[in-house]
Write a structure and sequence with these properties.
The chain has about 700 residues and is of the alpha+beta class. The chain folds into 6 domains: about 70 residues, Helix Hairpins (Orthogonal Bundle), CATH 1.10.287; about 230 residues, DNA ligase/mRNA capping enzyme (D-amino Acid Aminotransferase, Chain A, domain 1); about 110 residues, Nucleic acid-binding proteins (OB fold (Dihydrolipoamide Acetyltransferase, E2P), Beta Barrel); about 80 residues, 5' to 3' exonuclease, C-terminal subdomain (DNA polymerase, domain 1, Orthogonal Bundle); about 100 residues, DNA polymerase, domain 1 (Orthogonal Bundle), CATH 1.10.150; about 70 residues, BRCT domain (Rossmann fold, 3-Layer(aba) Sandwich). It is about 35% helix and about 20% strand. The protein is elongated and about 95 Å long. About 35% of the residues are buried. The protein binds nicotinamide-adenine-dinucleotide and zinc ion (ZN). The site of nicotinamide-adenine-dinucleotide has 23 residues, from helix 1, helix 2, strand 3 and strand 8. The site of nicotinamide-adenine-dinucleotide (NAD) has 23 residues, from helix 1, helix 2, strand 3 and strand 8. It comes from Silicimonas algicola.
């Protein structure tokens, strides 16, 4: 992105227009639909960029500038409420200096010298949605969301169902508008999502969305069933002042029966404000609800009213936000998960914390070296700090990636914490867990006797890219495995005969759904060769390689026989590609573009294991395995084995390969006596030489394109 100072006015105008569109779209998704499409950090970055351009090009500021807007218009379906005093937003600070700068600008506005005393309150910024409650004569008469700041949604009936919101007040001013945040605790959020999932309803990405989605319900019965809470942090219209100070006013609201935040502190200036910020940040993980920063407010209400408002934010307050994609929390426990190939993966169980808008309670710890504070080659990571149970750790998330533990605060380590001892036996089956040379991962050697591996294999087998059986997801497979109904892949296809009757009577199933599942299983008795191969869950065998193998071998018996031959060839024992290539069966695998030594070795050794092989044969016995779709036979390259080498300029290697295959050619990765045609671009090396030696026809990229032009 271009620096603002180097933008031309035309570019600035165009970018302001784009930002206005993008921000409006994000506002609509977040505020009106409770379903954000971008992260808060990305949103904040858009707003910042917009503000920077506007301040550099004040003349270009748009009539619909996002800087002048709050939230989103109230949704249709709700009655509208006009706020007697607008409900605005808050300015943002991200760095410590911006907090000092805030104090300076307040003083400047008020004409106060740097050493004049000026008190602020600092309190958590709760991540929910704001609500304005109007009491008249001590009775709650209306409740409204913020909407676009001027007009909100009437949610009075819904608000009445929230325990923290009193229906009547004693000794209150005749007119009193209380403003605060509606939110949901982590525990209630998790329970709600579980219930929603079980009922097949919509689940929420984070507690804020859950709170907003629950309050903004057209049916108040739904709101009533949702565990919402309310913190009072401010007020709107008043017939009589509550107090002289922010702190006094909030204390008064507490006396009236509202829940207020007990982490509010009076601060003497920026140093104390930042101190409170760090204290609150430390407590963040253990609060049990989401906060996304700390709000500082000038304490003296007379000064607040002198300071007043900008278009959408008060001059007397600012929100100091926490870094969005990073958070500190407690690592409660390290657990070991056993994967499909026996890999022991350490997982950190964390005290839940929100990172980038998502509640995180687990993070990966990669492997035992990572926990110990070293990389695979022994060099220290995190300055060599190891990770222990009970540690205070920093968690981060980027995009949709699994959360990771990035750092440890050794100063906060419990005194009795001991270095983590990585298990050397499988926690599920007790077999030895060993680490092979050069492998960062420790693996359970239990194979098929390991229940963890067995169930992971089954889950893999029914997955999308494998058998993809409708109604048989990971969850059902796990249950059937636990109950002993399905122990290995072949059992899925005998389920009808063995358990058909019981399935119909099984809890949560019934006649219809049982029949649907059994039909769905029958429908998969015919399966594409590549899906079958992928379903076996052989280490290093991905979807793409499964396709390559299927195209090359066409049927399962041929592939299996070639693997058997490879296993019996003496060169199989030898190291190195050259030695392997001397064996015809090995080299047949290696000649397939996209199939390398590691995969070949894994495939050959897996199929050579008697138990493993018997299990695959039992599965295959129930199946009709379909060869890949017939290829074009009338193209000039049909049936020929083609090798591409050197740089291709008009297409990528992948494109060239796909095109050749669609024309019925076989694409190989290396030149051999079986090669019919070499397509050599600039920089072609040993393959071109070998082709000459073997007398194989060689053409360039243009020659290739000409050859297939009419195909
Ligand atoms: N991801 C997205 O697409 C997206 C879109 C729009 C907004 N957002 C998020 O919302 C923010 C902007 O929303 P906003 O205009 O509501 O501003 P804001 O959330 O930054 O600040 C204002 C709000 O803070 C709340 N608040 C909580 N505790 C408070 C306290 N103690 N005192 C005062 N107010 C308190 C109030 O509800 C108030 O309306 C963005 O910074 C972003 O994080 C995200
Ligand atoms: Zn095991």
């Amino acid at each position: 992105m271009k620096d603002v100072s180097s933008l031309s006015p035309a570019e600035a105008g165009a970018e302001l227009a784009r930002l206005a569109r993008e921000i409006a779209r994000a506002n609509e998704a977040y505020h009106a639909k409770d379903a954000p499409e971008i992260s808060d950090a990305d949103y904040d970055a858009l707003k910042r960029r917009n503000a920077e351009i506007e301040s550099a090009f004040p003349d270009l500021k748009r009539g619909d500038s996002p800087s002048d807007q709050v939230g989103a218009a109230p949704s249709e379906g709700f009655q509208k409420v006009t706020h007697s005093i607008p409900m605005l937003s808050l300015g943002n600070a991200f760095e410590d200096e911006e907090v000092t700068e805030f104090d300076r600008s307040v003083r400047k506005y008020l004409g106060l010298s740097a050493d004049a005393s000026l008190a602020y309150v600092a309190e958590p910024k709760i991540d929910g949605l704001s609500l304005s409650l109007r009491y008249e004569g001590g009775a709650l008469i209306s409740a409204a969301t913020r909407g676009d700041g001027a007009t909100g949604e009437n949610v009075t009936v819904n608000a009445r169902t929230i325990d923290d919101i009193p229906a009547t007040l004693k000794d209150a001013p005749d007119v009193l508008e209380v403003r605060g945040e509606v939110y949901m605790s982590h525990a209630d959020f998790a329970a709600l999502n579980t219930r929603q999932e079980e009922a097949g309803g919509k689940t929420f990405a984070n507690p804020r969305n859950a709170a907003a989605g629950s309050l903004r319900q057209l049916d108040p019965k739904i709101t009533a069933a949702r565990p919402l809470r309310f913190y009072a942090y401010g007020w709107g219209s008043l017939s009589q002042p509550l107090a002289d100070t922010q702190k006094g006013a909030i204390d008064r609201l507490a006396t009236l029966g509202f829940v207020t935040n007990d982490m509010m502190r009076l601060c003497d200036g920026p140093d104390e404000m930042l101190e409170q910020y760090r204290l609150i940040e430390e407590k963040r993980a253990t609060l049990g609800y989401d906060i996304d920063g700390v709000v500082y407010k000038v304490n003296d209400l007379a000064l607040q009213s002198r300071l007043g408002f900008r278009s959408t934010t008060p001059r007397w307050a600012i929100a100091h936000k926490f870094p969005a994609e990073l958070a500190w929390t407690r690592l409660e426990k390290i657990e070991i998960q056993v994967g499909r190939t026996g890999a022991l993966s350490p997982v950190a169980r964390l005290t839940p914390v929100t990172v980038g808008g998502v509640v995180v309670s687990n993070a990966t710890l990669h492997n035992e070296d990572y926990i110990a504070g070293r990389s695979a080659d022994g060099t220290p990571i995190r300055d060599g700090k190891d990770i222990r149970e009970g540690d205070w750790v920093q968690v981060y998330r980027a995009g949709d990636v699994i959360p990771k533990v990035a750092d440890v605060d050794v100063a906060k380590r419990p005194k009795d914490a001991t270095p983590y001892e990585f298990p050397t036996v499988c926690p599920r089956c007790g077999s030895d867990a060993i680490r092979e040379d050069g492998d960062a991962v420790r693996r359970c050697t239990g194979g098929l006797i390991c229940p963890a591996q067995a169930v992971e294999r089954l889950r893999h087998m029914v997955g999308r890219s494998a058998f993809d059986i409708e109604g048989l997801g990971a969850k059902q497979v796990e249950q059937f495995f636990e109950d002993g109904w399905i122990a290995e892949p072949a059992d899925i296809f005998t389920l009808r005969d063995r358990k058909g009757v019981e399935l119909r009577e099984r809890e949560g199933w019934g006649e219809k759904s049982a029949e649907n599942l059994l039909d769905a299983i029958d429908a998969r008795r015919t399966v594409a060769f590549e899906r079958f191969l992928f379903s076996l869950g052989i280490r290093h065998l991905g979807e793409v390689a499964a396709k390559d193998l299927a195209r090359h071998f066409h049927d399962w018996p041929t592939l299996a026989q070639t693997a058997d031959t490879a296993a019996s060839e003496p060169a199989a024992e030898a190291e190195g590609r050259d030695a392997l290539a001397k064996s015809p069966a090995w080299s047949e695998f290696l000649s397939i573009d996209g199939v390398g030594q590691t995969l070949t070795r894994s495939l050959v050794t897996t199929l050579a294991q008697a138990e493993e092989r018997a299990l695959i044969d039992r599965l295959a016995a129930h199946l009709t395995i379909e060869a890949p779709a017939a290829r074009a036979t009338d193209s000039p390259v049909a049936g020929k084995t083609v090798v591409f080498t050197g740089t291709l300029e008009k297409m990528t290697r992948a494109e060239a390969k796909a095109r050749a295959e669609s024309l019925g050619a076989k694409v190989a990765g290396s030149v051999s006596a079986k090669t019919d045609l070499l397509v050599a671009g600039p920089g072609a090396g040993s393959k071109a030489k070998k082709a000459v030696e073997l007398g194989i026809e060689t053409i360039d990229e243009d020659g290739w394109l000409a050859l297939i032009a009419d195909a």
